[in-house]
Amino acid sequence: MGSFLRDKDNLEWEDAIDRLKTETIEKLKLSYDDLEEDYKEIFLDAACILKGWTKDAAVIALKSCGFPARKGLTVLELKSLITISKHGELDMHDHIEEMGKNIVRRVNPNKPEMHSRLWIEEEIVDILAKSSGNQATKCIRLNAYGLNFEILMNGLANMKELRFLNVCNRHVYRSDVSNWNFDEDSLHLPDALRFLSWSCYPFSSLPKTFQANNLVGLEMDDSNIIQLWKDGKEKALKLRFLKFRLSQFRTLDLSVAPNLETLTLERCDNLEEGHFQVTPNLKKLCIDRCYKLKKLHMPPESPKLKSLNLLENSKLTTLHLGKTPNLETLNLYRCADMVELRMPAESPKLRSLNIDRSKLTTLHLGETPNLETLILQECTRMVELCMPAECPKLVTLDLYNLELRTLHLGISPNLVKVRLQDSPMVELHMPAECPKLVNLDLSFLRLTTLRLENTPSLETLNLQRCTEMVELAECPKLVNLKLFDLNLTTPHIRQILTKCRKLVNLDLSFLDLMTLRLGINPNLEKLSVNNCTDMVELHIATDCPKLVTLNLDYNVKLRTLDLGLTPYLERLGLYRCYDLEEINASAECLKKLIHLNISNCGRFKYFKFDKEAPKDLYRLEYLEELHLRSADIKNLPDSLCMLKHLKSLEINSCRLLEKLPEDIGRLQCLKKLIVKDCKILRDIPNSICEMDHLECLDLTYCTRIEELPEEIGRLECLKELDIRGTGITRLPKSIYQLKGLCIKGRSDDREDWHKR
C-alpha cells in the first residue's frame, strides 16, 4: 500500500485508510458472528454502554439483565473482543468498539429511536423531547447535566422494553425540587427495567407508577432518596443487587426486597438504623463510612451470607451474627465504639477475620476449621482471645496492640506468618510443631524466654524491644534477625550468631555490648548495630563477602572499627560515633563504597588501608554520597577532589572549617553540594563553576559568605540555590542566564533582588 500511495495527495491517503479500516472491521466481525446470541448481546452492551466500567460492576449490570455475565465476558476475552485492564476495567480496541456500535446503528442508521442501545447525548435528548421513544430501545446511557427533568421523565414513558438505564446528572437539593411543578409521581419509568443506575436522583422515593416487578439491580449515587416507595407497600421481589452511596435515608427496611443478594451502603451520612431481618438470600453486605449508624438488625439466620464488611461505622456498638454457616469473610474496620461481637458457635467456612480499632474486650472464635487469616489490630481493650484447639488451615496471625497477657496457639500446622506486636504478653504457647512458619514478629512483648526448636523453616525473627528476654534458642535457617534492645549477654549473642550461618539481614541495635566480633557470615548483606552506647570495638570476620550495608550510628564510644574483608560494601553509616579515630580496611575494602556518613565523628582522622595510614580518600573511588559533620574539622583533604563518582557532598555544622579545597570543581559528577552552618567559612572557590552537573547548591547559615563566584552562570544544570542566613546581598549578573533557577534567600532581601 505504501508504494501504491506514493506521491498521492491527502484525500487519496484518507480514502485508502478509510477502506482499510472498513476491511479490518469486517474481518473482526467474523469473531462476533460466531458468538451465541447471549454473548452477542453482552458484547454490544460492552461496546456501547459498559466500556470503562469495572468488571465487577459490569457483571452486576449484565446479571441483572438476565445474561450469563462472567462466562460471557470470559468468552469475549478469549476471542480478544474485550480486555480487562490492570485496574479491573472493561476495555477494547477502538476499532472493535466502533464495530459494535456500527452493528447497533446499521439497521435504520438515520433513526436512532429505532436503535437497541442509545449512548449519544444529542440523540437521546432529541428522542426524549419529541417523545419518539419506542419498544426498540433496550439500553440507555445518558449524561443529563443540562437536560430538563420534565422532558426526561415524560420521554421515558414510551420505551416499554427498556431493560437498562444509566443516568448521570448534577446534584439537585431537595429545597429546589420542592419548587418544581412536578414530582416523582410524574416520572414514568418503564416497568420492564431490570437495571437502574441513577447518579444524583432528585426525588425522595421511586415513583408510584413504577412497578418494579422486573427490577434486579438498583444503584443510587448522591441521591435525595429517603425510602424506596412512599407508602412502603411496594415489593421488589426480583431485586438482587442494591447499592446506595451518599443517600439521605435515616432507616433502611429491606423487607421490600426479600430476595436481595448484595447490599452496599457507602457514606450514607444520615443512616442510623438498618433492618435486615428478612433477607434470607443475602450473600454480601458492605456498610462503609455510615458514621451515624448505631443499630444493625441482622436476621437470626443468614444461610447464604458469604461476606460481611463493616468499615468505619464509628457509632455501631454491637453485632449479633446469628447462624452464618457460609460466612467466608468478616471485616470490622474502625468500628471504634463496638463493644460486643457475638460470633456463631460454628463458622465452618470462615476464612478471613479482620477487626481493627474496636472496644471489644474478649473474642471467642468458636469452631473455625477453615480460618486462614486472623487480624486483630489496635483493639486496645482486648484482654482475652480464645483460639480454637485446632486451626488446621491458619496461615497468617496478626495481633497488634492488644492487652493480651497470655496466648495459647492450638494445632496450626500451616502457619506461615505470625505478628504478635506491642502487647503486655508474658506467656506465649507456640504450637507443638510449626513446620511452615517463616516469619515471626514478637516486637514489644514482655516474654523472658522463647523456644523455637519446632520451627525448622523460620527465616525472619523480630524481637525488637523485648526488653525482658534473657533466653533465646538458636534457629539455624534464619535469614533475617532483629535483636533490638534485648537483655541478652554478649556470649549468648555470639552463640546465636555462630549457629545462624544463613543470615542476610541482622539488627543488633540498642544492646549492652562492649565488643562485637562477628564470625563467618557468608550471606550477610545488611548489618545494623546502632545505639550500642557502651561498644568500643567492632571486628568483622575476615570473610563477609556479601556485606553491602553497615549501619553503626550513635555508637558514641566506638574507637576501633575493623572491616575485615568486605569487598562489596556500598553504604557505611557512622553518624555520631564521637570517639571513632580510625577505620581498618584491606586494600580491596571500600572500593565500591557509595554512601559514607561520618558526621559528628569529631576524632576521626583517617582510614587505614593494609596496615598503612594515608589520609587520602581517593581509594573510595566509587563513593557517591559523603556526609561530614564535626565541630573539629578545619580543613578538608585535597584527596576529596579525587572522588570522581561523588554525586552528593554534605558538609554540615563544621564551624571551624576555614575553606573548601581550591580544586573542588574537579568533582564533575557532583549534583548536590550542601555547606550548612559553617560559621567562619568565607569563600566559595571559583572552580565550583566547572561542575557541569551541579543541580543544588545550599549555603544556608554560612554567615560570613558575602559573595558568589562571578561566573556562576556557567552552572547550566543548577535548579536550586539556597543562600538563607548568608551575608550575600548581591547576585552575580551571570546568574540571570540560568533558566528555571529557584533562589531561596532571606525574606527581607527578596524584594531587593527582584528589583536588581
From TrEMBL:
<keyword id="KW-0677">Repeat</keyword>
<dbReference type="InterPro" id="IPR044974">
    <property type="entry name" value="Disease_R_plants"/>
</dbReference>
<dbReference type="InterPro" id="IPR058192">
    <property type="entry name" value="WHD_ROQ1-like"/>
</dbReference>
<protein>
    <submittedName>
        <fullName>NB-ARC domains-containing protein</fullName>
    </submittedName>
</protein>
<dbReference type="InterPro" id="IPR036390">
    <property type="entry name" value="WH_DNA-bd_sf"/>
</dbReference>
<dbReference type="Pfam" id="PF23282">
    <property type="entry name" value="WHD_ROQ1"/>
</dbReference>
<dbReference type="InterPro" id="IPR032675">
    <property type="entry name" value="LRR_dom_sf"/>
</dbReference>
<feature type="domain" description="Disease resistance protein Roq1-like winged-helix">
    <location>
        <begin position="37"/>
        <end position="107"/>
    </location>
</feature>
<dbReference type="GO" id="GO:0006952">
    <property type="term" value="P:defense response"/>
</dbReference>
